[in-house]
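From: lab user (bench 3)
To: helpdesk
Subject: output format question, protein + guanosine-5'-triphosphate

Hello, I'm new to running complex predictions and I'm not sure whether the block I got back is the full result or only part of it. Here's what I submitted:
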Amino acid sequence: MAPAFRAGFVTLLGRPNVGKSTLLNQLLSFKLSIVSPKPQTTRHVIRGVVHGEGYQVVFLDTPGLMRRPMHQLDLRMLQSLQFAAGEADLLLLVVEPKMPGDIEARFMEELRQQEKPVFLVVNKVDTVAKPHLLPVLEEYEKRYPFQELVPISALMGDGVALLLDLVVRRLPEGEALYPPDELTDRSERFLAGEIIREKVYRLYKEEVPHATTVAIETFVEQSSEHGGKDYISAIIYVERDTQRRILIGRGGLALKQVGVEARKDIEEMLGRPVHLEMWVKSASRWRQNPVFLQEMGY
Ligand SMILES: Nc1nc2c(ncn2[C@@H]2O[C@H](COP(=O)(O)OP(=O)(O)OP(=O)(O)O)[C@@H](O)[C@H]2O)c(=O)[nH]1
Ligand SMILES: [Mg+2]
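Helpdesk reply: Thanks, we reran it on our side. This is the complete output you should expect:
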C-alpha cells in the first residue's frame, strides 16, 4: 500500500529580519515574499504552497513581531500573525544564531499556551562558526520542548531540504488543500505592489520605507495601447510632503531607480514585458487611518 498523502499548514514565526521571507522563497524556489535588510518588511501573511511527491505544505510567512504596536497598521499586522499561528498544524520559530532575547522568550511563552508541535529553525548559520552555534542550540533546548532544532542558511539554501523533510513527516494525513499548480493565493496585482514596496525598502533610509505603501491603480495584461506589454500604474503613498520629495528625488532620479528595479522584477514574476508608471502622493498619517488601511488590504 502506498504511504498516505500528507498536507498541512506551517507558519513561520520570529522577530523581524531573521529571514522568514527568505526561507519561504527558498522553500518555493520562487521569489514570492519580499526581502530587505530592514526590519518589518513583511506586512501581510503570505501563503506559499510547496508541492511534492505524496505531500503538500502550505507555508505562511508572517510579519515580524513588534515589541509594542505603535499604530493601527502594527495592530493589524499583529492580528494577522496571531491568526496565521492559530491556523497552523506546525509552527516554525525562526531565530538568528544568537542567545534568545526578550522577543524569543515571549514567543516561547506564547507557544506554551497551545498544543501544537514547534520546530526551532536557527537561520543565518553561514554568519557564525560552529562553536558559536552549539551553545545557542543547547540554550534553546533547555528553554522549550521543540520537536526539532534545525540549523539552516536560508540565503545559501543549506539545511532547507532537510527542514522540508522533517516538516512533511509531522504533517497530518489528508487530502491536498490547493490545486496542484497553485503557488500562492495572492494575485499578480498584489505581488507587483509588493515588489515596488521592496525597492523602496532597499533604496531609501530612515523612516521613508516604513511610511510607504503601494496601491496598484491599473493592471492591463498585454495592453494594445502599450505595444502589447502589460500596463501597470501604481501610486506610492507616503505620510508627509518631505517624504514625498525624498522619494521622487532631484529631477525624479530616485523614483526612476525604483521604477527600473521594480519593472525588472515584475517582468520576471509575470514572464512578460511590462510598462510601469508610478505616482507619489502623501496621505497624512495613513498608518492610523482604518478606512485607508482597509482599502489598501491591511
Ligand atoms: N547571511 C544571511 N543573511 C540572511 C539569511 N537569511 C536572510 N538573510 C538576510 O536577512 C535580511 C532579512 O531577511 P528577510 O527574509 O526579509 O527577514 P524577515 O524575517 O522576513 O523580516 P520581516 O519581514 O521584517 O519580519 C535580508 O537582508 C536577508 O538577505 C541567511 O541565511 N544568511
Ligand atoms: Mg519578511
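A quick orientation on your result: The chain has nine helices and nine strands. Let us know if anything else is unclear.
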